[in-house]
Each structure stands twice: as C-alpha cells, then as structure tokens.
Amino acid sequence: MLRNYNSPGTFYNKPRLLVLIASIVISLSVVPFILPHLFHQHMIYHILMHLVALILSQFLAVVSIMAYLKSRTSRILFMALGFMTLVVAEYVYLLNSTEDIHPMFIPQVNIELSHFILLIMVIFFGISFLKSPHR
To answer: CA distances (Å), 5 to each of 1, 2, 14, 66, 83, in order?
Structure first.
C-alpha cells in the first residue's frame, strides 16, 4: 500500500524503513541507555524490551502517517495519532526502566503520566474504529 512504484528502493519500502528506524533508535540509545546498564542483567533485558517496543511503535507511527497522507481519511488520522501517542508512552517507559526519571504523577488526581498517555492512545484507537468509513 505504501510502496512508491516509480522507485521501489526508496523510503517507502517498509522493510528498509523498519531497518532505518531501528538503526537510528539503536545508535541514539547505545550511550545513554544501553552502555550504562550493560552488565546489570536485571535491567538490560527490560531496557531492550522497551527499545524494541519504541522501534516498532515509531515504525507503525511513520507507516500510519504515510497512509494518512495518501488516503486523507479521519480513521487513519486517529490511528496515526494513536501510534504517535504510543511512541511517547514507550519513550516514557524507557526512561522509567533506565531509572533516568522516576514515574511522574499528575498531582491533582495522583495518576502516573504514562497511564494517562496510554488512555489517550486507547481513545485515539477507539475513535479510529468507531468512525464511519467515509471521509
């Protein structure tokens, strides 16, 4: 669906896009997230799990944004917003798992910020499924 048929080896090739996003995320994560915890077995697997989730959520967000730019439907827009919100949530979870930041709470209601972000994500996905298939 998102291939550029005029030039099949370009940015719209989804496997290459996934490799590109993974390469960027891993290269930017080695020094601040991976190396300091490399020999902490109880932490490194948790960090790697969140890095994989961050890579996949960024890939899905980019693909859904490209799908929205092609289709211009509100259903795809809300799905793209859901995936973008998932990227933010995964980044917060990554920072929490490396203990760079401690869980942040919304003081008025004593709810973790990450849980609130996930609620927004679920709302966006729900809207995308409940919207009529018309523009």
So the answer is: 10, 9, 13, 15, 26
